[in-house]
Amino acid sequence: MLLNVIEKGPPDGADPLLPPVVLLHGLFGRARNLGYFQRRLARTRRTLAVDLRNHGDSPHGLMDYTAMAFDLVETLSHHDALPAIVVGHSMGGKAAMTLALNSPEFVHSLLVADIPPARTGHGQFALGQMMLDIDFPSYLNRAEADALLAPEIPNADVRALMLQNIRLGDSPGWIIGLREIVESIPNIESWPYIPEGFSYPGPTLFLAGANSPYIRSEHYAVMRRLFPHYELQMIERAGHWLHVENPARFSELLEGFVSKY
């Protein structure tokens, strides 16, 4: 599946000897969510922010991480952007790890934001089902859409994320593959089977929100087995949405990692 890509780079062109940077969003997100970080990296690097399947402007279909990794190989090969430095948050981080483990030759280095290589179920099915059950009126503007979601999604940041997935105006509705996402939630919250002996030998940086429940000490052993050269950095004053809650520190660590390679 060829995915939608937003590409940016230096005005005079990026150094062809430097690997491009690929940015992968989380569940219910889209490529443009990472625009601030993409613009900063694009001052010196070729960058590609990707809409994963069922998200943004990419095609729809049932999801699991093996399929998503194949999507990335097909899409990035189409754009002549392999091998790449791959950066992924949450669901995008799992897709990035699966790509690195299945096709390590395509991943120059890897940054994973606040997700371990493990099952991480935190009730997203209920949110997705609630979104499916919303009864849209015949016309909707942004303020009305915000009011429509507010009773079910009281967190303003999460609600803003969801609002970008609604088609406003006449005949409003979800523009994402919401039904496919909801049907795939068990796969999204899970982690694919990785045969014994598989590992990614390249440089790997895990970033964890200090207030997030996702990366825990019990995950360190499997992180070391699958990513033997990994490092872990905690981002203070941040939970799971660490790039939103502490963007300055996230950007500092991201840019520092990319600049090494």
Automatic annotation (TrEMBL):
SUPFAM superfamilies: alpha/beta-Hydrolases (SSF53474). It comes from the Bacteria. GO terms for molecular function: carboxylic ester hydrolase activity. It holds the Pfam family Abhydrolase_1. Keywords: Hydrolase. PANTHER family: PROTEIN ABHD11. This is Alpha/beta fold hydrolase. The lineage of its organism: Bacteria, Pseudomonadati, Pseudomonadota, Alphaproteobacteria, Acetobacterales.
